[in-house]
Every structure is written in C-alpha cells, then in structure tokens.
Batch of 3 targets.
Target 1
Amino acid sequence: MYDVAHNAGWVSVGVDHDTAAFAVESIRRWWTTMGQAVYANATTLLITADGGGSNGYRVRLWKFELQRLADQTGLALTVCHFPPGTSKWNKIEHRLFSCISQNWRGKPLITYQVIVELIVGTTTTKGLTVRSALDENKYEKGRTVSDADMATLNITPDTFHGEWNYTIRPRPSD
C-alpha cells in the first residue's frame, strides 16, 4: 500500500501464493497497523489497483474478499482500477517500489527477515517511510466465488466505467 497523502508505504511480504485473498489481507494489515490511526474518522477508503493480477477488476475473489473487509471495518471501499496496460501509472510504482528496489540493489535477499528489514530501511529525502511485515498465512490458489456469493455483494458500479470503478459498502447487519 502507498499512502499518497502521508508519503508512507506498507509492504506485506508473503510466503505463499499471490492471490486476491492475500491482496485484501495486505490492505487489512495496512489498515490495522497504519491507516486506522492516521484516518480515525474515515468512512471510506479509496483504493487504486491494477487492472489485472490478483486485484484485477475481473477477479471475483478480490471483490468477495473486499466485501468481507468492508463488513469487518465498517468502511466503504471505493476501488478505481487502472485501465489495461496503464498500471505503471500507479504512484506506488514510482514512489514506493522503485525506492525499495534502489535500497536493496546489490544486497543478497537471503531470508524473509532480510527482505523485510531492507524494505523498512527504505527512505527518501522527501520523507518516504515504509513499514513491512511477513505474512506467513497460506492462500489457496484457484478459489472460486459462486454467482450466489457474488449476488450478496453490496457493490455499486460508478457511472464512469463501472467495471473498473466501484464502491463496496458494508452489508446491513441483521
């Protein structure tokens, strides 16, 4: 995660598969570790995401797991996916990942702990700070989400490219 307003990053270092469940767990960990304290009065999170991969706009598990996060936190999650072929426009690429890559350049990434420490040691003269943690959870590949499960989502497509831009709100509790 990259918080543009605070020039702060969060990186989950996973030991298993890069799935939609892992991607949403990374958001959850950022929220409980960093975001909630900084945005205590937030009612909505804006998430910019790539158009493909584990957090792609067509990935049903991504939306299903985001719904679980919205229900858990009480936050509305507004997601804006970058159009296909434009993910390199995402500020996380230029303001976070490139700085991490420069910081660990030439250093052997021999253990997960070394990776986490190098990520945390990433700073810039413009004040970038980065936190990181190891995620040792197992994430099952190939999980499917049924049409019935998709029908339970409290999702509202945006009027502009609703397939790429949408808000998932917490479901009313019974």
Target 2
Amino acid sequence: MIDKIKNIKNLESGNFFLIAGPCAIEGEEMAFQIAEKILEITNKLKIPFIFKGSFKKANRSRIDSFTGIGDEKALNILKKVGEKLNIPTTTDIHEIKDANLAANYVDILQIPAFLVRQTDLLVAAAKTGKYVNLKKGQFMNAESMSHAVKKVQDSGNKNILLTERGNMFGYRDLVVDYRGIPVMKKFAPVVLDITHSLQQPNQSSGVTGGRPEMIETIAKAGIATGVDGIFIETHFDPKNAKSDGANMLNINNLEDLLIKLVKLKQITNSL
C-alpha cells in the first residue's frame, strides 16, 4: 500500500497513516516545530507519518493573499525536515514544471482537487516516479476518480493515493459523502482530508472560512468507514496562520484526537 514510501515507519501497527503539517511553509523554524511535535505524537501512538507543507499557494481567493516564501526556499525547508527527521514529505504542485522541481525535494506529489482533471499535470507527476496523491475534485463523484488513477497508471506509475475532501454543497459549504470511500478504495488507498472537508469557501471577504469544531466528527466517521489514511492541517497558532487558518487544527489538540482515532481503528480492525 504505502510501504514503498521512503522512510515511512510504524507500518506494523495496523493503524491508519497520517499526512499532517501546516497549510503552507511559512519558515524553517515553524516547519521544524510542527514536524517534530507531530513526529513525537505519532511515534508514541505508532502511527505512520508523512509531513505535509505547501511550498507555494497558487489557488488563493485574493491577489493579496499569502502565496509563499519563495519556491526554492520552501522546498529546501521541506527537504531539510525530511532528511533531519528521517520522515517522508509531501507538497502540492500546480503546474507541469512544478513536478520535476518538487520531485527533487519531496517523496509524494499532491495534485490539488481543482486540478485533478488536468491530464498533462497528472502525467508529469506520474513520470517523476514519485508517489502521486490525487485529491478528488469538489465537483467529482468517487467513480470518476478511476479515470484520474488510470492516467497516472498509464503513464507508468502505480504508486497512487486518493484523497477525499468533500463535495460542494451550495455555494459556501462542503459535504463528505462517505459512500465514496469504499468505491475509491477499489482504485487505490484512500485518505480523508479532515480539515479541507470543513472549509467554507467563497466568503464575501475573500478569506475562506471553516468549521474546525467538527474535525473530530469527520475524522471518526472516516475511520469507521475504512479510510487508509487521515490528512490534517495543523498549526501552533491557526488564527495567525498565513493560509487556511479557519479550518486548521490547533496542534495542541492533535494528540487527544489521534488517541481516539487509534482506539476506533482498533475496533474496526476487529470487525
């Protein structure tokens, strides 16, 4: 499943794996603080851990929104975190040229939900030989993700993850249809993106809202319906995060949440 990912650990535990980190890389110190905290928790709970951080944010609502600290600078931080902490890393890519660039620094390339139908982007990511995490479009059903998977497979890459992150409901809300989890598991291992599933986009202010108080509810339902992995964006100070702070989990609440999810996973494993 994910055993080919470089430096992935705790696979023998039978737990779900965790993709977690800040929405965007804001600096080296914050990246290490978050990665070290998550690593401490996941090692204690025997959860396989992949560190996530966007090296740039291309899909912002407003032109004055934070987009990054510089591509090479952010990618170098991701590489340093991976090497020093001996953990796998992932980042999202938005353009064809990003694929080979990011592949030099991280272990998994993430395709944003808005871009998962972009054939050339998927082919470019696949040809790097890295794991490719395809995020399901908010406008797509689970069955249609088989075509995105096939694009990557037909490009010579079998290392694929799928991520559910909700479907648009009206103009400013997202709803997770858990019926799609077992459908997508037929194609590839499935991750549930907890925090992005709770976004409230298209606010009149141009700043995306969210409902972080529902994180535990969404996460528990995901484990109960058999997801292979959980995706959580987290930060020490979400209110002052430079991107997606409204739906991020305060990292001080992460361990308690993961303890509950591990217990629930143990129950589902026994069923």
Target 3
Amino acid sequence: MSKEIVIITSFFSINREQWKGFQRSDQQYFEYFKDWACMRNRLIVYLQNEELANEVRAYRESIGLSDRTSIVVIPDFFDIDKELFEGINSITSNSKSKLFRIKQRNPEVWNAPYNYIMTMKPWCGQDAVERGLVSPDETLAWMDFGFNHCEVTYLKESNFDFLWEYDFPHKINFYSLKPLDDRPIFDIVNTLDTYLMGSVFVGPASMWKQLWLIYRESMMELIHCGLVDDDQTLMLMCVRKQPDMFTVTLSDWNMVLYENGASHLLLKPKKPAKTAILAWFSRMNHKRRDMNIALKYLARLFRYYLSFPLH
C-alpha cells in the first residue's frame, strides 16, 4: 500500500555565485526550489537564517501549505560537527590532495563548505526525527533544494502540485547511474566518477540515525587517507560497508519520482545526438584517465631515478 512521503531538504549559502564556471546565486536556488516545493507532502527545510526562512514560509503559505511546512534555522551549521568540518578543510587546503584529482576545477576538490554540507544531509534527517518533526515509522525522502535545476529532468510545465505517495522497500533506497562494481574508492575520487546519486534518496525515518553515522565514518576515513569527496562517493562507501541496509536501483538523474509514484510528470526529451556525444566523451575520458595515470607513474619513476647521484 502506498505511503505518504515526508520530504526533507536544506539550503546553506556557500557563495556559489563566486565560483568561476559553477556560478549559481542564492536567488536562483530559491527559484529552483519553488519549481518543485508546491508538492503537497509535509516538508521539512533546514536553513541558515530567518530571512531565507521567511521566503520559504511565505511561498508555502501562498499555495496553502503552511500547515504542512516545518522550518529549522541553524545559523551556526558549520559548528555542529567541528571535527568533521576542520578535517574536510585541512584536506581541501592541501595542494597535494587537490593535485591528486584529474578534474581540479570541480567544487568537490577544493570547497570545504560544499563537501561538509553534502555530508550533513542525513544529519538533518536524523535531527528532524529527534526534534519530533517526523516519526520513526514514517518514510523520509531527501530532495536537494535545487532539485531539477531548471529542467534537468522534468519540464517546467510538469505538475508538481500533487501528493507523493509510494510503498518503498523498508531500507534506505539509493539510485545509481550504473551498476556497482569493485573499483577502489581512491580511483573514483581521482576521476570524480559518479555511481550513486545524492539528489534524492528515501528510507524509513528510523534508519536515518544509522545512515548519518556511517556517512560521517566514511568521510572521516577519506580524511585520514588525505582525501575528501561529496556525498555521492560516501553513499557508495556506505553501501559497501552495510549492503543489507540498502536497496540500490539503476536509474537516471532525478528519475526517482517518475519511476516511483509520479509518472504524470513531464520528462525533458533527450536528444539522441547529444546522448551519443556524451557517451563518446565518457569513453574518451576513461581512456584519458588511464593515460594520465600511466604518465603520473612514469613521472614518479623518472624522479626516483634522478634522485640517485651520478658517478
């Protein structure tokens, strides 16, 4: 039998409008939010200040959903887990850790607040349970504040004015772009590949405390190895640690709603030529990655032999 889903999200500004090549303003994120936040489900939103809270509150009130909206304001969000944030910051400040990545411009490489906020998604879920905003026997779904980023998956004409209900398996439900394999985590961090998608995941509210603990443990393990990454790599590490806790389903970006109770939403058509080009670039990227790794090893070997004195 289908069950109503309680949705949780958050927004904490990290000055993204200043990220060259990755710019998005806070107001742009709020417009993304309004595209989907007319859903009739109960909505829990974690925010950094009352100004944002008033915007969210006013929007939900304007569509008659103020009584289905809970807002938690946490101005000192980066102080919740100082050890975690300082650990992430120490790695993103390390030039050698940054040089380990093939794609050095991506925010996962150098932005500590970004990685911290991504890691804290399940913390918000378990905190909502502790505050009594959602009961342990309910189903809780994470949705990114900027879900669908201006028609990434769904057309703007889609009707998000509906009550999302679905009978999910009684596990944490993750969604993957490709079949899981046994690639070493360091190789995935090196290439910034994505398996599991962090934009939407769903599970019993009673399991979010455990989810948070293994999320955090996974990030601390990366930190101890001189690495960090966003939540999508942490999700993969969690599945490998406790596979019985998770259900992993092959899907595509943001398709969780369409494939699980919201098939009325209008999908953005995919261009066959564009899809083929992206597949070609993906193959070339893997070849380039392998070549880059080989060149790195050759360079290290060369430096090693140069370290010996000449006679």
